[in-house]
Amino acid sequence: MLIFDMDGTLIDSNGIWRGVDEAFLANRGYPYTEEYCAGVAHTIFPLAAEFTKRYCHLSESIEDIMAEWMNMAGDMYATKVPVKSGVMDYLEKCRAKGETMIVLTSSVPSHCHAALNKLGLMPYFSRIFFAHDLNMEKSNPEIYHIVAEEMGVKEKDCTFYDDSIEACRAAKKAGLTVIGVHDSVFFQAEKEMREICDQYILSFEELL
Fold first, then answer.
1. pTM for the complete prediction?
2. Greatest extent of the chain over all pairs of C-alpha atoms, in Å
3. Could you tell me which residues come within 8 angstroms of residue 104 by beta carbon, excluding any fewer than 6 positions away?
4. With 80 as the cut, is the pLDDT of residue 186 above it?
5. Among residues 59, 111, 177, 190, which is most buried (max CB within 10 A)?
6. Is the pLDDT of residue 19 over 90?
């Protein structure tokens, strides 16, 4: 079974959230820092909002912070986010081989469905797992055990694709084969990704 992350792996969307974060912080007089990025990147929405509330000493509620982010992101997932190079051809190749493919994402459902439908990716996947619904970060190896069990497969028979070093590390610890995917927003982790992952790709075209 093949397990795909969405943001930064299947679609080129990480830049959206970098822009949202920078504008959100600037409105409150804070710079965008590596510390802040580490606290919110690849994190489920509620935990990212909790971190932001602490980091910026905000009076707003967690719900208000998330609502502002959703408003700032607007409909970009349905209108502006492109599929990453080689993804469509690779998914088609895997489907032709009869591979079972699913998505495991930290994205909110509305963004995920909007992007996958708009880009024509939805038909390739038999199921979508949302980390938010599982109440677990993708940096926790347990989430991969849960997904494998739910799908009726062994971890050793799963290949996982992600641009996050934390997710790749956790999936590897859980016993999955891991393909690290380059993303321009998180390129700084490339050296460590190459050390941890079974393979690291700059583009899905390499897998064709």
1. 0.89
2. 53
3. 3, 4, 5, 128, 129, 131, 138, 143, 147, 160
4. no
5. 111
6. no
